[in-house]
Specification:
Blueprint: E1 2-11, E2 14-20, E3 38-45, E4 54-58, H1 61-89, H2 92-119, E5 126-130, H3 133-139
Length: about 140
């Protein structure tokens, strides 16, 4: 997926880009965009850019495929396993407590996994080009 972004700074061979929330995101608010609609993140550089450049960024498809699974499905699966274990061991109260406990464990695991994934070059966005002033106007 291709997006445009603003380069905020360049450091250690990476561009720190500011992305605006895409229309594809809708109003989910589940990721780091939050209420601001913007996020700053590191990107690999295939193009030589500098701060305040508007750039073309290629987002790895695998990020969009696995992000919802990591964020929603893993905690939900853990919740269901907790409910099942609680039902086998005892009554409703333990079932509910273990369900939410397992869900918290699953969410914590998802957050930890996300911190490792963010550092992996395979999942980082890549700056592939720099838009000139004329290109910026045409793309809007």
């Amino acid at each position: 997926m291709t997006e445009t972004a603003l380069v905020k700074k360049v450091k250690d061979g990476r561009a720190y880009i500011e992305l605006n929330r895409s229309y594809r995101c809708g109003e989910c608010n589940a990721c780091a965009f939050g209420d601001s609609g913007k996020i700053t993140m590191p990107a690999l550089m295939d193009a030589d850019c500098k701060p305040d450049d508007t750039v073309i960024v290629e987002m790895p498809q695998s990020v969009y495929a696995w992000a919802p699974v990591l964020l929603f499905a893993v905690p939900l699966a853990c919740f269901l396993v907790g409910l099942l274990v609680g039902k086998i061991l005892s009554g409703e109260l333990l079932m509910i407590l273990l369900g939410f406990g397992f869900a918290a464990f699953g969410f914590t695991g998802a957050v930890i996994a996300d911190s490792f994934i963010r550092r992996d070059r395979r999942y980082m966005p890549v700056v592939t080009g720099i838009l000139s002033g004329a290109d910026k106007e045409r793309r809007r």
